[in-house]
């Protein structure tokens, strides 16, 4: 009985010491594993969001003569943080008019990732706010059947106005 009691106390002390050690380790972004300030939710569904979805679904699927409407010069994963109509028009190579967005309230993130096969899709975007930066997690959904050919996939999301912290993108398959 006494050995098991001493063993329990020893395990409790080891657990407490480990917890204190881990939470005191400072990482680049903050403290321990709890350095996330918050997960930023997309802007609520608004008429702007619906117009934006309609716009992107139309222009991103309609390349004319091999000309991509966004990110035409790149062959890798990329994204743009758009905080003004000027920013938006500077990355858009298409002919259709741009949808109206209230950039006083919102930030638009548009990106492109390459998937290893056709029929992949973006299943979720998650924007995480850290003390000095953001991390955008792009989750790809693998289809049951696919043809192995690199495919560019676009994503976009309207967020409440973001400050000018750096955004790192991580793609998860």
Set out the fold topology:
Blueprint lengths: L1 H23 L13 E3 L6 H13 L18 E5 L2 H7 L14 E10 L5 E9 L3 E9 L9 E10 L5 E7 L1
Parallel strand pairs: 5-7
Antiparallel strand pairs: 1-4, 2-3, 3-6, 4-5
Q: How does this model look, in words?
A:
With 173 residues, the protein is of the alpha+beta class. The chain is built from three helices and seven strands. The strands form two sheets. A four-stranded mixed beta sheet has the order 1-4-5-7, with no helix packed on it. Strands 2-3-6 form a three-stranded antiparallel beta sheet, covered by helices on one side. The longest helix is centred in the first third of the chain and has 23 residues. It starts with a helix and ends with a strand. About 14% of the residues have low confidence.
Short characterization:
The protein is α+β, with helices and mostly antiparallel strands and 173 residues long. It has helices at 2-24, 47-59, 85-91; strands at 38-40, 78-82, 106-115, 121-129, 133-141, 151-160, 166-172.
Provide keyphrases for this structure:
173 residues, alpha+beta, four-stranded mixed β-sheet, three-stranded antiparallel β-sheet, 7 strands, 31% strand, globular
The radius of gyration is: 22 Å
| Strand content range | 25-35%
Shape estimate: globular
Structural class by SSE content? alpha+beta
Strands side by side in the biggest sheet: 1-4-5-7
Query: Could you estimate the helical fraction of the residues in percent?
Result: 10-25%
* Strands, count: 7
Count of individual helical segments: 3
* N to C succession of SSEs: HEHEHEEEEE
The main sheet comes to: 4 strands, mixed
The mean pLDDT is 75
Low-confidence stretches are 10-33
Distance between the termini: 51 Å
């Amino acid at each position: 009985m006494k050995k098991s009691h001493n063993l329990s106390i020893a395990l409790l002390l080891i657990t407490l010491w480990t917890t204190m050690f881990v939470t005191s380790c400072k990482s680049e972004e903050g403290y321990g594993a709890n350095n996330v300030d918050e997960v930023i939710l997309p802007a609520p569904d608004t008429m702007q969001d619906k117009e934006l979805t309609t716009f992107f679904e139309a222009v991103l699927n309609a390349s004319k003569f091999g000309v991509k409407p966004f990110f035409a010069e790149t062959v890798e994963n990329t994204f743009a943080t758009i905080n003004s109509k000027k920013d938006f028009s500077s990355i858009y190579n298409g002919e259709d008019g741009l949808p109206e967005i209230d950039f006083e309230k919102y930030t638009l993130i548009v990106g492109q990732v390459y998937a290893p096969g056709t029929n992949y899709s973006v299943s979720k975007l998650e924007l995480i706010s850290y003390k000095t930066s953001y991390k955008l997690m792009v989750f790809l959904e693998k289809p049951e059947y696919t043809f192995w050919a690199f495919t560019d996939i676009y994503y976009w999301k309207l967020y409440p106005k973001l400050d000018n912290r750096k955004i790192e993108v991580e793609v998860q398959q």
